[in-house]
């Protein structure tokens, strides 16, 4: 069984988002072992300088590196966009490459350090559009569930 890690910087504040995540985690657990790892977000002033942002990303990267393992998929704007069917195929291929774990990484609202992106086996982007940072976790979990359901022959994706 595939082991899926969702490594996220920051906590979900709104109950409705936590409830949505809990529902998709429950659904995913029928197909894969799933673990969501929340890491502390660095505190920054309201209008941080580029240097302050880079330092915060570097600190977050150290924590991310300790948590990630297996096939590494950071979520980043420069990543590739996939259809749900192609994500399903990608998740099917990971165990065939000898990996039993896939780590999806969602950075803070300022993104991810280049040191994390450089360790990627595959970079994934949800969209060229901008979404609220906290919504990214729900969207990713839904797409993982959809992909696993497709692989199992389910009808959810239609």
Please tell me what the overall shape is.
globular
Structural Rg? 15 Å
**Proportion of residues in β-strands:** 15-25%
What is the first-to-last residue Cα distance?
24 Å
CATH C-level: Alpha Beta
CATH architecture: 3-Layer(aba) Sandwich
Contiguous helical run count: 5
**SSE topology string:** EHEHEHEHH
Number of strands: 4
Sheet with the most strands: spatial strand order: 2-1-4-3
State the helicity in percent bands.
Answer: 40-55%
Mean pLDDT: 94
CATH superfamily: SPOUT methyltransferase, trefoil knot domain
Q: Helix/strand/pairing class, anyone?
A: alpha/beta
Kindly report the CATH topology. Alpha/beta knot
Instruction: Return the domain count.
Output: 1
Which blocks of ≥5 consecutive residues have pLDDT under 50? none
Largest sheet properties = 4 strands, parallel
Structural write-up:
- It is built from five helices and four strands; from the N terminus they run E-H-E-H-E-H-E-H-H.
- The chain is of the alpha/beta class and 158 residues long.
- The chain has a four-stranded parallel β-sheet.
- It is globular, with a radius of gyration of 15 Å.
- The longest helix has 19 residues, at 133-151.
- The model has no long low-confidence stretch (mean pLDDT 94).
- It has one domain (3-151): SPOUT methyltransferase, trefoil knot domain (Alpha/beta knot), CATH 3.40.1280.
């Amino acid at each position: 069984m595939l082991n899926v890690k969702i490594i996220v910087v920051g906590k979900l504040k709104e109950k409705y988002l936590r409830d949505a995540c809990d529902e998709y985690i429950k659904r995913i657990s029928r197909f894969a072992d799933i673990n969501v790892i929340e890491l502390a977000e660095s505190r920054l002033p309201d209008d941080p300088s580029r240097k302050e942002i880079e330092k915060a990303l570097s600190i977050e990267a150290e924590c991310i590196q300790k948590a990630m393992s297996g096939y590494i998929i950071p979520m980043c704007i420069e990543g590739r966009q996939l259809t749900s069917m192609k994500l399903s195929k990608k998740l099917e291929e990971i165990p065939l490459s000898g990996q039993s774990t896939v780590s999806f990484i969602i950075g803070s609202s300022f993104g991810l350090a280049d040191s994390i992106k450089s360790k990627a086996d595959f970079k994934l982007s949800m969209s060229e559009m901008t979404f609220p940072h906290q919504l990214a976790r729900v969207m990713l979990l839904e797409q993982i569930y959809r992909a696993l359901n497709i692989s199992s022959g389910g009808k959810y994706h239609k």
